[in-house]
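Researcher: Structure for this, please.
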Amino acid sequence: MMTTAAATGDRLTDMPLPPAPFVSSVMQIEPQWIDYNGHLNMAYYNVMMDRAIDEMWLQLGIGPAYMKERHCSTFTAEAHVRYVREIHLGDPVQVTVYLLENDEKRLHTFEELRHAGEGWLSATSENMTLHMDMSARKVAPFPPDIRARIQQVVASHTAVLRPDGIGRTVAMPRK
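Model: Predicted structure, token format:
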């Protein structure tokens, strides 16, 4: 009989790696997400980018089954969102995710939310994500099999052109 960790490991070897860059499924804006300005409320850009990350995490092997079987998960520690162009009800969207860097406990990602039909950029989000031991609720190293998988994805994402906006800070313009 296989242990849970062995079963998870076997599933990982059978699972293809996320592409470089990862592109989410097409998502729709929900009517309740539209604010009094007639466009998508700022909070829901994060919801859509988080859904895209969840799709990618499944392919990395760190989705809900990982939490259930290994008692580990990820928490976002920092996010920097840029709102570039309004998006409205009826606009289909897709999120591209770049896994930029990693270490034993962290993932650095950059997401671009685009109009799925026309391709224009609506928003970006740069994030630092922590790997968590949920039993202790503390930051912990990724298991070796997951870390190896992450490093493969980072290497493939390093080979693609990096989008504009990575590493930006929030500050008033200099005169």
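Researcher: Any notable elements?
Model: The two ends are 68 Å apart (CA to CA). Confidence is low (pLDDT under 50) at residues 1-7.
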